[in-house]
Write a structure and sequence with these properties.
Number of helices: 11
CATH topology of the largest domain: Aminoglycoside 3'-phosphotransferase, Chain: A, domain 2
Structural class: alpha+beta
Shape: globular
Number of domains: 2
CATH class of the largest domain: Alpha Beta
Distance between the termini: 38 Å
Strand content: 15-25%
Strand order of the largest sheet: 1-2-3-5-4
Helix content: 40-55%
């Protein structure tokens, strides 16, 4: 379902109203609540005690989805199905919590707008964004993405075949409409160049690439770590049906942004290819997929900052992202593949 004509509305709700809503919808009493960062959604960390049994306080994340994603109930249900599948196969992910009506979510009204409201289990760990770069860390991230491929391969969910979010990598060309939000002319020209490459070389090949269900946003904010170990994966808001190449390209983009170093791609890919070897076609398209995702992140971040001034999370990639994009622009494909250990493939 395409809601491109609708205006995206980020939820607005006070801590008091969210606390009251949790107590209304769940058999829980909130003892602690704190707002978390978020791009299009509103997120809160909450500690609760069960009103019925007085058990020890439990930790959750309360997520109130933006109005556009809230229209796609079948996609919300698909997210839960994917979470359960990965959980059953030993990958640590957040899970939805049943409410008083034995449902995993409800649609609630805030400021006269309907939003999906739900609680998810909380995973202990620090965000990868707060960790120091290391080869072992990036190798472990690549391994996780490879494991996710194995566990989701063959999964069929009808709702994801028709999903058409602006954050899906196949929709990278759509960012051209938001280029006025980018002040620098040289940066706009670089984005246009990469978008044209994506349209010319990647889009025609999409039907021929191995595809399936992907997480769609394995980034430094959605990966939780304990030392060098990956402690969990959160935020399934961008799940979709897409080429598996897009999953590793998206992850690679954000690990490069985290490290501020193009060369970390070697370790990410080394870990990933323990579980899935890239094909010659995928290797040829990898650079432009990474560049296009970086363009998406940067341009949509600028646009979000225009719509929602003060949302620092939306601008988190800007400082280092543009210099890295410029570096990618100046790096030939074969040189980059050599840097990533793919030159002999």
């Amino acid at each position: 379902m395409d809601h491109g004509a609708c205006i995206m509305i980020r939820p607005s709700a006070s801590i008091i109203s969210v606390t009251a809503k949790i107590s209304e919808l769940y058999p829980l009493g909130v003892t602690k609540i704190k707002q978390l960062e978020g791009y299009d959604d509103l997120n809160f960390f909450v500690e609760c005690e069960r009103q019925e049994d007085g058990a020890e306080a439990e930790k959750y994340v309360c997520k109130i989805m933006n109005n556009i994603d809230s229209l796609e109930i079948d996609v919300v249900e698909a997210q839960h199905q994917i979470m359960e599948r990965l959980h059953e196969r030993g990958i640590v992910v957040s899970l939805p919590v049943l409410n008083r009506t034995n449902q995993y979510f409800s649609v609630e009204r805030f400021n006269n707008v309907d939003h999906v409201f739900r609680l998810l289990t909380y995973i202990d760990g620090s965000k990868l964004n707060d960790s120091e770069p290391s080869s072992q860390l990036y190798n472990n991230v690549g391994e996780l993405v490879g494991k996710i491929y194995l566990e989701l391969k063959g999964l069929e969910i009808d709702a994801l075949h028709s999903r058409n979010s602006q954050w899906m990598l196949k929709n990278a060309p759509q960012i051209l409409q938001y280029l006025p939000a980018v002040a620098d002319a040289e940066r706009r020209d670089i984005v246009k160049s990469f978008v044209k490459e994506f349209e010319d070389f990647v889009v025609p090949m999409i039907p021929n690439l191995e595809s399936g269900v992907i997480h769609g946003d394995v980034n430094e904010h959605n990966l939780l770590v304990e030392e060098m170990r990956i402690a969990g994966l959160i935020d399934f808001g961008d799940v979709c049906y897409a080429p598996f190449l897009f999953e590793i390209a998206i992850c690679l983009t954000y690990m490069i942004l985290h490290a501020k170093d193009l060369s970390v791609g070697r370790e990410v890919l080394k870990g990933y290819q323990k579980f899935r070897q890239l094909t010659a076609t995928e290797i040829r398209l990898l650079r432009i997929c990474v560049c296009s995702r970086m363009c998406q992140s940067l341009v949509l971040g600028c646009q979000s900052a225009v719509l929602y001034p003060g949302n620092e999370y939306a601008l988190s990639s800007q400082k280092y992202g543009w210099p890295l994009l410029h570096q990618l622009f100046q790096t030939a494909n074969q040189r980059l593949l050599a840097l990533w250990g793919l030159e002999k493939s």
